[in-house]
Amino acid sequence: MKDDKPWVLDDPGRLKALAHPMRRAMLRHLGLHGPATSTTLGSLLDAKTGTTSYHLRQLEKYGFIEEIVERSAGRERWWRRVETGDIRLPLPAELAPEDRPVLAEFHRIGYEEDKGILLDLLPAAYEADPAWVKVSRGLGRMRLEELEAFFEEYIALMKKYSHGAADVPPGARPLYLRLLALPADLPAPPAREE
Prior knowledge:
By secondary structure, this protein is mainly α. The chain has a domain at about 5-120: Orthogonal Bundle (Arc Repressor Mutant, subunit A). About 45% of the residues lie in helices and about 5% in strands. The protein has helices at about 10-20, 20-35, 40-45, 50-60, 100-130, 145-160; strands at about 5-10, 35, 65, 80, 85-90. The strands form 2 sheets. A 3-stranded antiparallel sheet has the order 2-4-3. A two-stranded parallel sheet has the order 1-5. It is globular, with a radius of gyration of 19 Å. The termini are far apart.
């Protein structure tokens, strides 16, 4: 990982760079499959090369990816994801009011990604390779300071057992890891219509 200090996305530009579905899909692809060109990403994401090039430049501008100069030639530029380590989000009150919609959009896109993992990928992954799928559901009671400590220990545990892209040992696989902690004593939301 980049370093142990959390990278707080309190810069509206950086936050906005990640609050875009195509950029997040590009980062996900680069993280899972390694370096790619804008042409490769364009064909995977059904987008024009000019569009993918623009989004790649935005990700580069804010330090999420870098060009692989030694692999690039002419107009073909190769990109890799930068290992950013522990990325944290600010609370809405820590942002200027005009920047809060970007944080809300960041969360909305993330929730959609997580919903896809839970509804589509989780059942398929379990069906294909159940030994690699671990799910835990529970109900705990904590004070806020205990929840904060629990979260920090979770991040430390994830770092302890995770390998960076440069040091992946044989047999290691990329895994989606999610920690979901939210109050269970809130009123139930209205039922969704399908």
